[in-house]
Backbone:
């Protein structure tokens, strides 16, 4: 359970709630039992299907019932049906799960069911070779991208939705141009720099991250991304350029632990890989001073800063 | 009662009473997690030194009643379909209760192995949802069954590798954002497979250490709220990397303790919220890794008592904080 406040009901209130829930529980148990029995009996009827709709409406996490529902679709409802009818059946499934997603955007099983449906949309309505040969597929996958973007508007950090969006993009019958995709993630990052999920879709880019550094310097996402851009084997020029830029930012934000930590990291890289070309003494002195300050500024992680200091000592010996 | 200490007797009675909530609708709406919940309750009790608080025979019979004869694995509840999540819980309970003779090891190993995909990841069941969580379930279960030899380790490690991100963390699938729970499953699976060389310890350690927020609690991703369950996901990964000292143990301990319900027992996601058995086990597990006095050692790789894992000769090279005296 997440984010549900603890309330201590009075004994009377508790009794009243139990009374109220009693009939709901009975109804739910009767429905589950009926469905599990039908499942055992290999009942693939329309009736059984309707029962699964009722139950999943109450409890979309009942994965066994989603499984059974798919079995009914395959072994019951789509038997002896035309492609058009099957397309309609799957479209109805997508509508049904859309409602479920709105109230339960983080339930894996719903996303999984949509995936299953999407992959089964038949070819048509046109015949092979015609423009509309994959018209159903195209519109189903386009619709899917629209749906997932709606959900991302509601919560830009829903990683299930991001994963699903990636899946949709990879599977679309007509691939979307990369430029559109870049525009989309840029928009999401600019709306909220801490949007790690959107960072994640990006390829390497220094400008964007430099921008973010100045706009939102307290956000770890930016600094991790920057470190990745710099990489593990950077030239002296690149390291010095980045240190200088961060130094400048530190001048404006003298308490920024992220600035200090990053300068330490890049300075250690300089000392490790380019010792012959830098002023070792001055750089060491500065790094030590920053590590000392970090221990004060950010005491929770003091042990890590001490270990970085030890690495520095080993490096110099 | 004050929450400055772990209220063991209260938590024990809270867990004992979980099966008595049959007049509560939520109890029935969570039947798809029942076997997992039994494992969480049992492990929490074991870490608090009270494994005897639930009846052993009754529990073993319940586990066996969840067996899905058609698939050859465990479902979460009698009549539910087999799934890797429930199958791992069932096996973990049988191992902890020393009742492996009840299990058809060949069949269940076959079921687990049948779920590996060509890419190396595992599906949760025959319906195909894939996730690194399921990969961990498979690796953990096969290891407990003594059947890791049947696994294509190279392919499995290959998939984990392809989920590694620029922050050193891991996601649920290729290209997915890092998340502390996914970091735990990937790092623990690599530990079991003896392939921790695939982890960028410095970057991942940094990312994990920064999960601690000013109130002492840990979050699962940058710019998210703290939550007691991350105490386990983050700490277990840190202990496998031997970097638990990179966070402030005292502050985290205080945060977990403050999320206890001092009247009814149990631990919540954060102070003042409703408790549940999921946050109770992961709170207790976190405290064990932090060396909280009086608790039993937890194996962070398998999330089971360390003693049980050692007895099977499966202990990996992890490091929790030393157990403190009262
Ligand atoms: Zn939680």
Residues:
């Amino acid at each position: 359970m997440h984010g549900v406040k603890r309330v201590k009901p009075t004994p009377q209130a508790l009794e009243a709630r139990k009374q109220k829930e009693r009939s709901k529980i009975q109804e739910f148990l009767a429905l589950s039992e009926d469905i599990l029995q039908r499942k055992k009996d290999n009942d693939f009827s329309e009736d059984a299907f309707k029962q699964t709709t009722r139950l999943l409406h109450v409890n979309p996490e009942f994965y066994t019932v989603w499984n059974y529902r798919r079995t009914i679709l395959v072994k019951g409802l789509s038997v002896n049906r035309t492609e058009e009818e099957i397309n309609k059946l799957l479209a109805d499934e997508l509508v049904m799960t859309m409602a479920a997603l709105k109230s339960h955007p983080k339930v894996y099983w719903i996303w999984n069911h949509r995936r299953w449906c999407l992959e089964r949309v038949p070819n048509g309505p046109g015949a092979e070779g015609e423009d509309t040969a994959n018209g159903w597929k195209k519109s189903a996958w386009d619709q899917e991208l629209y749906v997932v973007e709606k959900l991302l508007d509601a919560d830009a950090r829903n990683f299930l939705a991001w994963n699903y969006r990636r899946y949709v993009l990879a599977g679309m019958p007509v691939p979307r141009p990369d430029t559109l995709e870049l525009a989309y993630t840029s928009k999401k990052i600019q709306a909220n720099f801490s949007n790690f999920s959107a960072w994640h879709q990006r390829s390497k880019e220094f400008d964007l991250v430099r921008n973010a550094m100045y706009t939102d310097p307290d956000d770890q996402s930016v600094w991790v991304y920057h470190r990745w851009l710099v990489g593990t084997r950077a030239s002296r020029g690149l390291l010095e350029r980045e240190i200088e830029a961060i130094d400048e930012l530190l001048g404006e934000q003298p308490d920024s632990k992220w600035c200090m930590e990053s300068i330490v990291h890049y300075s250690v890289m300089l000392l490790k890989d380019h010792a012959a070309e830098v002023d070792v003494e001055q750089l060491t002195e500065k790094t030590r001073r920053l590590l000392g300050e970090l221990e004060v500024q950010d005491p929770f992680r003091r042990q890590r800063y001490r270990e970085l200091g030890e690495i520095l000592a080993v490096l110099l010996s | 009662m004050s929450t400055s200490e772990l209220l063991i007797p209260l938590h024990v009675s809270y867990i004992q009473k979980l099966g008595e909530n049959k007049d509560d609708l939520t109890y029935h709406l969570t039947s798809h997690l029942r076997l997992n919940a039994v494992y969480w309750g049992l492990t929490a009790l074991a870490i608090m030194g009270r494994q005897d608080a639930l009846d052993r025979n009754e529990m073993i019979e319940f586990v066996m009643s969840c067996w899905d004869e058609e698939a050859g694995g465990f479902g979460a509840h009698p009549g539910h379909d087999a799934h890797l999540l429930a199958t791992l819980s069932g096996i973990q309970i049988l191992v902890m209760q020393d009742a492996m003779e009840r299990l058809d090891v060949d069949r269940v190993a076959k079921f687990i192995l049948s779920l590996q995909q060509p890419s190396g990841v595992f599906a949760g069941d025959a319906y195909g949802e894939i996730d690194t969580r399921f990969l961990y379930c498979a690796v953990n279960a096969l290891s407990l069954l003594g059947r890791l030899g049947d696994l294509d380790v190279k392919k499995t490690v290959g998939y984990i590798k392809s989920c590694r991100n620029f922050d050193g963390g891991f996601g649920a699938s290729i290209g997915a954002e890092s998340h502390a729970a996914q970091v735990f499953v990937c790092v623990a699976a690599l530990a079991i497979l003896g392939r921790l060389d695939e982890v960028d310890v410095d970057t991942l350690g940094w990312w994990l250490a920064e999960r601690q927020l000013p109130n002492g609690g840990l979050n699962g991703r940058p710019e998210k709220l703290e939550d007691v369950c991350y105490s386990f996901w983050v700490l277990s990964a840190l202990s496998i990397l031997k970097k638990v000292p990179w966070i402030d143990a005292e502050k985290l301990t205080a945060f977990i303790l403050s999320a206890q319900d001092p009247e009814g027992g149990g631990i919540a996601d954060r102070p003042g919220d409703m408790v549940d058995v999921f946050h109770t086990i992961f709170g207790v597990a976190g405290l064990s890794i932090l060396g909280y006095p009086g608790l039993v050692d937890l194996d962070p790789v398998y999330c089971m008592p360390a003693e049980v894992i050692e007895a099977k000769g499966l202990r990996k090279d992890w490091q929790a904080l030393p157990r403190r005296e009262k």
